[in-house]
Amino acid sequence: MKTDVIVIGSGQAGIPLATRLASANKNVVLFERAALGGTCTNYGCTPTKTMVASARAAHVARTAGRLGVKVIGVEVDFPAVVARKDAVVAQWHEGIDKRIADAGERLTVIQSHARFVGTKEVEAGGKRYAADTIILNVGARPIVPKVPGLEGVPFLDNTKLMALKALPKHLLVLGGGYIGCEFGQMFRRFGAEVTVVDHHGHLLAREDEEISNALEEVFRKEGISLQLGTEVESARKDGNDVVLRLKSGKELRGSHVLVATGRRPNTDDLGCDAAGVKLDAHGFIVIDDGWATSVPGVYAVGDATGEPQFTHTSWDDHRLLYERLVSRPSHGRSDRVIPYTVFTDPQVAGVGATERALRAKNVEFESATMPFGYIARALELDEKAGTMKILIDPKTEQVLGARIVGSEAGELIHLFAALMQAKQSVRAIVDMEAVHPTFTEGVQALVMRLPRFALKT
Ligand SMILES: Cc1cc2nc3c(=O)[nH]c(=O)nc-3n(C[C@H](O)[C@H](O)[C@H](O)COP(=O)(O)OP(=O)(O)OC[C@H]3O[C@@H](n4cnc5c(N)ncnc54)[C@H](O)[C@@H]3O)c2cc1C
Ligand SMILES: NC(=O)c1ccc[n+]([C@@H]2O[C@H](COP(=O)([O-])OP(=O)(O)OC[C@H]3O[C@@H](n4cnc5c(N)ncnc54)[C@H](O)[C@@H]3O)[C@@H](O)[C@H]2O)c1
């Protein structure tokens, strides 16, 4: 069958590209081998942030005494938490189904695995489909680290953990990155014992030390055990327990293990060789600044490209690639800033470079830091944990990087992201009147800690 456009994968870029192209009178075939909506909707952002909200409610109730409110007997109804999560995911599915229906007859959705059998030809469900334009939005899946014995214990990934019917007694988390931190704190707040193990010396290894430290302090206070800078040598099952043996000889015993050690692209079963689509050494699809692969007319978007693995990045890939496909000018991958947020409590949000990265490249910078607890709003709400950091270019006053660990950090970081995208001086934040009492006042105070913006006598 010949069509105008083939989209493989219904992730954060695949569905909007397929539906918008169909609405623009292209005949589109969208292939999806699992649930429509991909990782974010089914096993990622939507379910986790829904469950994080329940975990926070439990935490706020348990600690309400600090605000002079007595709460007696906080109990987490884990099946109810899971049911609420499933209901929110179902609500998203309704939205996806409507969007696909609204795209009309030009869009055909085929629930099947698709793989290349030629340059511009794919096979799915025993049939062949060809198109001049093919878009790959195949996403990624968990990496299973080479730990002897791990394959033999029934370890969990993010999908399996969220499908549990009962709360684990003691969750061992392998990996202290995004998933390890979000799930680790969430399950601790639900009432499980939690131990996080990472071979790096800090949680969120890519961050500057003081950023990781701020989160580690909170985790330790909440009773999460951190085993950092240590290798897991082997794993084994012992009765109902799972045991991780560390290189030091120490053994960690838990009821369940979550593996959260990064995600690899879903390209090993895509038949890229048959098409001549080039992959890098880790299996990521090699693309140019305009999402074009090594085969003219074949594009790739989202997690499988090796760009930062975020929903907003994949969605933005769709927005910018669509403009190119309909011959409207658009900027490329390199001309955008990508903010991010780890949805722990406090959140950890960032944009641009870390100090470590700037130093490694010998880039000149000025920096300022400020504890989050200095903010009036933080004091009033008793949300004092965290810290903030800004790095600017001394010549242009533009932001090179910013990090916020604190309440609503994921909202606040956009102040810096917008300035960076507009390539404007951070002076705008000094000159802006910030409403009192808001967290944004604290962001302004952070910027005014840079000596050039300090109040003068
Ligand atoms: C637990 C967790 C929490 C997360 N939380 C956040 C968050 O809070 N914020 C954020 O920005 N990001 C978050 N992410 C990351 C985010 O989910 C992804 O970056 C996002 O979903 C983008 O994915 P994508 O569009 O590249 O592809 P995906 O959404 O992964 O979709 C790819 C689709 O392609 C299908 N597919 C693959 N190969 C084939 C094939 N050959 N044929 C047919 N179909 C195929 C797959 O079944 C899948 O449905 C989280 C991820 C996880 C795992
Ligand atoms: N809030 C969000 O935006 C969000 C939430 C969840 C996931 N995600 C995305 O999903 C991606 C994958 O998340 P992730 O947490 O799996 O990966 P990650 O890259 O964030 O963290 C993986 C961690 O595992 C550690 N690690 C790797 N191998 C190990 C081993 N053998 N033993 C011990 N530790 C080991 C690494 O040092 C690292 O700290 C993230 O990078 C992110 O892009 C985003």
UniProtKB/TrEMBL annotation:
One Pfam family this sequence matches: Pyr_redox_dim
Single annotated GO MF: NAD(P)H dehydrogenase (quinone) activity
Active site: H436 (proton acceptor)
Coiled-coil intervals: none
Keywords of this entry: FAD, Flavoprotein, NAD, Nucleotide-binding, Oxidoreductase
InterPro entries: FAD/NAD-bd_sf, FAD/NAD-binding_dom, FAD/NAD-linked_Rdtase_dimer_sf, Pyr_nuc-diS_OxRdtase, Pyr_nucl-diS_OxRdtase_dimer
The protein's name: PF00070 family, FAD-dependent NAD(P)-disulfide oxidoreductase
Residues engaged in binding NAD(+): G175, G176, G177, Y178, I179, G180, C181, E182, G262
Naturally occurring in which organism (per UniProt): Labilithrix luteola
